[in-house]
């Protein structure tokens, strides 16, 4: 079964890469095709589960694209969205335009995404106390610690990534140093309710 799933994901990745090439031709530049999935100004597209990437710190965005390119992230068969991003990161890396892509995304007009996750924000505030040392009391992030901002991100994506860390779909590759650290932190959230509660609190920041 895993081989079948992996084969289907590989086929999808190849089709996505073809779509990217077509998108580039239609858009007339190297990076507008990002918006085909991530939405206007890369503020996210919940309908196809493409998260908001505008407003991300350039150093964080670059690191994740590097991880996708190297296979440090998104290489496991059960990480469907990671498989979709793998060819993107690899293409940007091979063509030497990864930094230019980051510059394009960070120049877009970032807007706060709609709330999609419900939970007990009061309980989430207690759970978030563990997160403040790295991500800040207001979810503003900390460049010195290479910890990205959490406020004003796609809430459903935060839920998904916390679950991915718990499942080992992210942060299981030793090359992803900060992902490995996050996997340990995510393990302290006892269940799905704890995850939605902490994300519900992040939505208030």
Short description:
The chain has 205 residues and is mainly alpha-helical. It is 56% helix and 0% strand. The model is unreliable at 5-11 (pLDDT under 50).
Global structural class: mainly alpha
Radius of gyration over C-alpha positions, nearest whole angstrom: 17 Å
Helix content: 55-70%
Q: Given the C-alpha coordinates, what overall shape results?
A: globular
Largest sheet properties: none
- SSE series: HHHHHHHHHH
Mean pLDDT: 90
**Low-confidence blocks of residues:** 5-11
Q: How far is it from the N-terminal to the C-terminal residue, by CA? A: 42 Å
The number of strands is: 0
Q: Can you count the helices?
A: 10
What fraction of the residues are assigned to beta strands by DSSP? Answer: under 5%
Describe this entry's structure for a reader.
By secondary structure, this protein is mainly α. Helix content is 56%, strand content 0%. It is built from ten helices and no strands. The chain has helices at 2-27, 34-38, 58-70, 80-94, 98-106, 121-128, 132-135, 155-167, 177-186, 192-202. Helix 1 crosses helix 4 and helix 3 packs across helix 4 (80-94). It is globular.
């Amino acid at each position: 079964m895993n081989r079948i799933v992996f084969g289907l994901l590989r086929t999808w990745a190849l089709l996505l890469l073809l779509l990217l090439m077509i998108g580039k031709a239609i858009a007339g530049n190297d990076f507008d095709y990002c918006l085909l999935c991530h939405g206007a100004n890369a503020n996210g597209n919940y309908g196809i589960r493409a998260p908001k990437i505008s407003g991300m710190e350039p150093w964080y965005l670059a690191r994740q694209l590097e991880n996708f390119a190297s296979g440090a992230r998104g290489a496991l068969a059960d990480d469907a969205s990671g498989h979709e991003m793998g060819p993107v990161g690899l293409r940007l890396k091979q063509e030497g335009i990864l930094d230019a892509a980051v510059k394009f995304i960070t120049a877009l007009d970032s807007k706060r995404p709609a709330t999609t996750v419900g939970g007990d924000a009061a309980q989430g505030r207690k759970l978030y106390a563990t997160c403040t040392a790295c991500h800040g009391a207001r979810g503003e992030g900390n460049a010195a610690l290479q910890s990205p901002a959490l406020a004003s991100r796609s809430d459903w994506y935060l839920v998904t990534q916390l679950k991915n860390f718990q499942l080992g779909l992210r942060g299981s590759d030793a090359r992803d140093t900060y992902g490995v650290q996050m996997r340990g932190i995510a393990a302290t959230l006892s269940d799905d309710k704890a995850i939605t509660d902490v994300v519900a609190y992040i939505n208030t920041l």
